[in-house]
């Protein structure tokens, strides 16, 4: 028996180590090349066919079922399947490469050359494995992030119909909260409060903003035994001053106000009830963003470009029209690309104007972030985004609602109209922040939603040509009802 045969190697018609390595490299790209060159045509063509099926199938799925794949990407079970599939595919690919080298390697190689060639094959295998392992890890991180943000242990929202999630839910009302609390959230002041009312069929959305300094307002019937004359200061030590932004703290510090909910949930649910009573809507869910961690999200996505209407101070403090503490810097007027820290100040600064202009800026900032969420940036900075999100976003949206929400969000971004209703005394006649006119608030909310549900016909393209960036219109442009298109607010 020949020496090569004694070792279990059948001589093959491919001479030279470098050629063998070249065929191995080619087989890493096109399965079966080395097998065909070695005369093992059946195995080689079978491997080629399998690769074509895998690549063609993946391309077909990616092109034909994009929307379905987006919905699958937010389901924990499917993410586990994808993670396992990626790891199996990595193992299979490496096995094909190693076997390809085995069928074409020359016999009788010296020990040093054999060791060197195996090292090169191992390095090639590692290079092949890396993207699959990275993708599997990213998928796992996504599943872990979704499970942390959407734990599914809060059943306060409407019951979800799996086959028709929007059945009997013509509009989805989500309370968007921006707070400044720490990790335990017990001391949060919600300085940003906006209700997103979304038509579940068309995606048309109304953003209803309420000022933080709304005071002495009516409360729901079940709370009137506590606050018969409207929300008032009930504990000076805790700083309750009758303002809307302290309702969260009232709920967290007084479990009896929101029975049945644990710490971290009482505040948002009390706000859902109070704000829903003010504007006449049933709030389905809430999303709370800790503004301290918000800057990490903006940094992870590479910053955000906004239009700054006028110079805004960073930090500082004004009392009676004078700075008692000087700003540490300024955001210059004009189009600016902001990092997380500056984007946070763009959204929270009010010393240069007032709370009501700040409300407009916050909505514009949300719109700019959504518009600029580039998929490539999201993928390349995914782990940073995921880490920031788990520390920043808190919600009672159930995981089961994520797939239909992803589908609905595609409708919103594909051309649906977004209008803004800001409760500001500068924009709405007869509205004041102290003891506000609740019937007026409810009428305007109903009017804005009705207008969004039945929008006016879109003007001809020639009538809507505008510059890509225009000055933000934060002056009162709709004093009769306060509702304007977000495009008019943000330019």
Key descriptive features of the protein:
single chain, 491 residues, alpha+beta, Aminopeptidase, 2 domains, 7-stranded mixed β-sheet, two-stranded antiparallel sheet, disordered N terminus
Task: Explain how this protein is built.
By secondary structure, the protein is an alpha+beta fold. The chain is elongated. It starts with a helix and ends with a helix. Helix content is 46%, strand content 13%. α8 (247-253) crosses α9 (266-279). It has 2 domains: 3-149, no CATH class; 171-307 and 338-456 and 464-490, 3-Layer(aba) Sandwich (Aminopeptidase). The strands form 4 sheets. A 7-stranded mixed β-sheet has the order 11-4-1-2-3-12-13, with helices on both faces. It has a two-stranded antiparallel sheet with strand order 5-10.
């Amino acid at each position: 028996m020949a020496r090569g045969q004694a070792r279990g190697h059948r001589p093959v018609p491919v001479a030279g180590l470098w050629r063998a390595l070249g065929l191995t490299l080619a087989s890493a790209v096109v399965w079966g090349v080395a097998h065909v060159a070695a005369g093992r045509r059946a195995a080689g063509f079978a491997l080629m066919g399998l690769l074509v099926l895998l690549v063609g199938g993946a391309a077909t799925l990616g092109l034909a079922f994009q929307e379905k794949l987006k919905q699958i990407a937010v389901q924990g079970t499917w993410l586990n399947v994808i993670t396992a599939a990626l790891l199996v595919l990595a193992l299979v690919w490496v096995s094909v490469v190693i076997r390809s080298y085995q069928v074409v390697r020359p016999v009788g190689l010296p020990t040093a050359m054999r060791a060197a060639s195996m090292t090169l094959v191992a390095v090639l295998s590692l290079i092949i494995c890396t993207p699959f392992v990275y993708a599997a890890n990213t998928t796992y991180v996504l599943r872990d992030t979704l499970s942390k943000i959407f734990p599914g242990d809060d059943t306060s929202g409407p019951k979800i119909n799996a086959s028709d999630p929007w059945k009997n839910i013509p509009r989805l009302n989500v309370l968007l909260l921006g707070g400044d609390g720490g990790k335990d959230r017990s001391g949060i002041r919600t300085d940003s409060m906006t209700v997103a009312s979304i038509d579940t069929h068309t995606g048309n959305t109304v953003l209803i903003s309420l000022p933080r300094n709304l005071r002495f307002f009516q409360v729901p019937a079940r709370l009137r035994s506590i606050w018969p004359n409207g929300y008032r200061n009930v504990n000076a030590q805790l700083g309750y001053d009758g303002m809307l932004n302290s309702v969260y703290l009232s709920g967290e510090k007084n479990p009896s106000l929101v029975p049945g909910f644990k710490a971290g949930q009482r505040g948002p649910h009390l706000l859902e009830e109070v704000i829903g009573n003010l504007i006449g809507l049933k709030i389905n869910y809430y999303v709370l963003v800790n503004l301290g961690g918000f800057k990490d999200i903006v940094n992870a996505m590479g910053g955000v470009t906004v239009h700054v209407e006028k110079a805004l101070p960073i930090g500082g403090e004004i009392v009676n029209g004078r700075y008692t503490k000087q700003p540490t810097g300024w955001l210059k007027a004009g189009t600016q690309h902001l990092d997380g820290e500056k984007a946070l100040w763009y959204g929270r600064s009010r010393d240069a104007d007032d709370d009501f202009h700040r409300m407009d800026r916050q909505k514009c900032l949300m719109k700019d972030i959504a518009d600029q969420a580039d998929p490539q940036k999201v993928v390349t900075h995914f782990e940073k985004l995921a880490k920031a999100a788990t520390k920043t976003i808190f919600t009672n949206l159930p995981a089961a609602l994520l797939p239909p929400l992803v589908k609905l969000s595609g409708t919103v971004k594909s051309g649906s109209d977004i209008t803004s209703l800001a409760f500001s005394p500068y924009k709405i006649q007869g509205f004041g922040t102290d003891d506000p006119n609740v019937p007026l608030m409810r009428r305007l909310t109903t009017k804005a939603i009705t207008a969004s549900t039945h929008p006016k016909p879109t003007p001809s393209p020639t009538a809507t040509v505008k510059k890509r960036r225009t000055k933000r219109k934060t002056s009162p442009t709709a004093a009769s009802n306060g509702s304007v298109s977000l495009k008019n607010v943000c330019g």
